[in-house]
Amino acid sequence: MTEELLRVLWIVERTLQLQPRLITMLDEIVNGETVRHEEIPQPAENLRGPISEVKRVAHVQGTFDE
Questions:
Q1: Alpha helices in 1-66 (DSSP H)
Q2: Alpha carbon 41 to chain centroid, angstroms
Q3: Is the pLDDT reported for residue 64 higher than 80?
Protein backbone atom coordinates (compact mmCIF):
# COMPACT_ATOMS: atom_id res chain seq x y z
CA MET A 1 0.00 0.00 0.00
CA THR A 2 1.08 3.51 -0.59
CA GLU A 3 1.75 5.91 2.26
CA GLU A 4 -1.20 8.04 1.16
CA LEU A 5 -3.62 5.11 1.28
CA LEU A 6 -2.31 4.11 4.69
CA ARG A 7 -2.93 7.62 5.97
CA VAL A 8 -6.51 7.53 4.70
CA LEU A 9 -7.06 4.18 6.42
CA TRP A 10 -5.60 5.51 9.67
CA ILE A 11 -7.91 8.51 9.52
CA VAL A 12 -10.95 6.31 8.91
CA GLU A 13 -9.89 3.96 11.70
CA ARG A 14 -9.40 6.82 14.18
CA THR A 15 -12.69 8.43 13.17
CA LEU A 16 -14.50 5.17 13.86
CA GLN A 17 -12.77 4.88 17.23
CA LEU A 18 -13.93 8.39 18.12
CA GLN A 19 -17.49 7.92 16.88
CA PRO A 20 -19.13 7.33 20.30
CA ARG A 21 -17.38 10.38 21.74
CA LEU A 22 -18.26 12.49 18.69
CA ILE A 23 -21.93 11.47 18.92
CA THR A 24 -21.98 12.50 22.57
CA MET A 25 -20.35 15.84 21.75
CA LEU A 26 -22.81 16.50 18.93
CA ASP A 27 -25.75 15.71 21.23
CA GLU A 28 -24.39 18.17 23.81
CA ILE A 29 -24.06 20.87 21.14
CA VAL A 30 -27.51 20.30 19.66
CA ASN A 31 -29.20 20.17 23.07
CA GLY A 32 -27.09 22.91 24.62
CA GLU A 33 -27.77 26.53 25.33
CA THR A 34 -28.38 28.78 22.36
CA VAL A 35 -27.55 32.44 21.89
CA ARG A 36 -29.86 34.71 19.94
CA HIS A 37 -28.26 36.84 17.26
CA GLU A 38 -29.31 39.97 19.12
CA GLU A 39 -27.08 38.92 22.04
CA ILE A 40 -23.92 38.73 19.94
CA PRO A 41 -21.96 42.00 19.82
CA GLN A 42 -21.50 43.53 16.39
CA PRO A 43 -17.94 43.84 15.04
CA ALA A 44 -16.35 47.22 14.56
CA GLU A 45 -16.87 48.74 11.13
CA ASN A 46 -13.23 48.18 10.12
CA LEU A 47 -13.63 44.44 10.79
CA ARG A 48 -16.65 43.99 8.53
CA GLY A 49 -14.74 43.77 5.24
CA PRO A 50 -13.68 40.60 3.45
CA ILE A 51 -11.25 38.32 5.24
CA SER A 52 -7.77 38.19 3.76
CA GLU A 53 -6.67 34.87 2.34
CA VAL A 54 -5.67 32.34 4.96
CA LYS A 55 -2.47 30.36 4.47
CA ARG A 56 -3.21 26.68 4.11
CA VAL A 57 -1.34 24.16 6.21
CA ALA A 58 -0.06 21.27 4.11
CA HIS A 59 -0.07 18.73 6.93
CA VAL A 60 -1.05 18.94 10.56
CA GLN A 61 -0.07 16.13 12.88
CA GLY A 62 -2.01 15.23 15.96
CA THR A 63 -5.34 13.84 17.01
CA PHE A 64 -8.58 15.08 18.44
CA ASP A 65 -7.27 14.10 21.88
CA GLU A 66 -4.63 16.84 21.91
A1: 3-31
A2: 23
A3: no
Q: What is the DSSP letter of 58?
A: S
CA 25 to CA 31: how far, in whole Å? 10
Is the pLDDT confidence value at 26 over 90? Answer: yes
Query: In which band, very low, low, confident or very high, does the pLDDT at 65 lie, cut at 50, 70 and 90?
Result: low
Type of residue numbered 33:
E
The alpha carbons of the chain give a radius of gyration, in whole angstroms, of 19
CA distance 15 to 64: 9
Across 34-63, average pLDDT: 77
